[in-house]
Amino acid sequence: MISKITIESAPSLDAPLIIMRPVGEMARGEGSKMFRNAVSRQKPRTRLVVDMSHVSFGDGNGIEELINAFVEVRSNGGDLKLFGLQEQAKALLETTNLHLVFDVYDGEDNAVASFGPPRGALFRNASPAATPV
Predict the structure, then answer these.
(1) Residue 71 phi, psi dihedral angles, 5° rounding
(2) What angle do the packed helices 33-40 and 63-75 form, to 10 degrees?
(3) Which domains occur in the chain, in start order?
(4) Concatenated DSSP letters of 60-100
(5) What does the pLDDT look like over 10-29, one tens digit per residue?
(6) Is 30 helix (H, G, I), strand (E, B) or coil?
(7) pTM score of the predicted model
(8) Spatial separation of the C-alpha atoms in residues 43 and 48, rounded to whole Å
């Protein structure tokens, strides 16, 4: 059962960027209610990064919870990225071919960077043009 989730909001000018850190066993049904509720509370267009480094999949049924989260976030115009998967979870995603559906990264920085810069960031960070004399 997921026993704890910390949620961090990263600064973003474009769409909400949330880093979620669940702890415990991802299981179908009541065992993942906390995870399900945390995903459901996110705003439309949320870019969600989930740290899976402290999550296990007891019998494999918990993968359904990840699929449901992915579908919910995507249907609200957002996106979901995973990082920190344990070997068991990586094997489960590969066995079910879900590694072709989920974006999985080695670390948090790579997962966050995969969203790219917010729209307009190139212009906001550009130095002002020199004024001819």
Answers:
(1) -65, -45
(2) 10
(3) 2-114 (3.30.750.24)
(4) STTHHHHHHHHHHHHHTT-EEEEE---HHHHHHHHHTTGGG
(5) 766 677 899 999 999 988 77
(6) helix
(7) 0.82
(8) 10
